[in-house]
Fold this sequence. Notes:
The chain is mainly alpha-helical. The chain has five helices and two strands; from the N terminus they run H-H-E-E-H-H-H. It has a domain at 34-105: ROS/MUCR transcriptional regulator protein (Arc Repressor Mutant, subunit A). The protein has helices at residues 11-26, 40-46, 65-70, 75-82, 93-105; strands at residues 52-53, 60-61.
Amino acid sequence: MTRNRVHHSEIAEVIVRVHTGLRAVTMPRKRRSRAARRSEAQIAASVQRNRIVSFIDGKPYKSLKWHLAAHGITPEEYRDRFGLPETYPMVAPSYDKAVVYERADRGGAVRRKP
């Protein structure tokens, strides 16, 4: 504050403003309201054999990875924003299986069901 001209009677107000601003930045965000949460039926309907329907734009995707990146959010933020379980897939089931078999053909590790 050496180059800022603040009268000594205003210093307390400046400190309060800085403190409020820092608290807003460092405090964890509050969870979204229940209105943003999806019902179990909506969640089940969004995962189909060949695609996953995005809750952001309602369009189907084989993988949500690039779609979420384009919107600047991570899978964890997406699940949190829409109230999805931690086990909610980011890849369509048939696409996931195709990738596993492709890796096996290349000599990679094969995922086994428990």
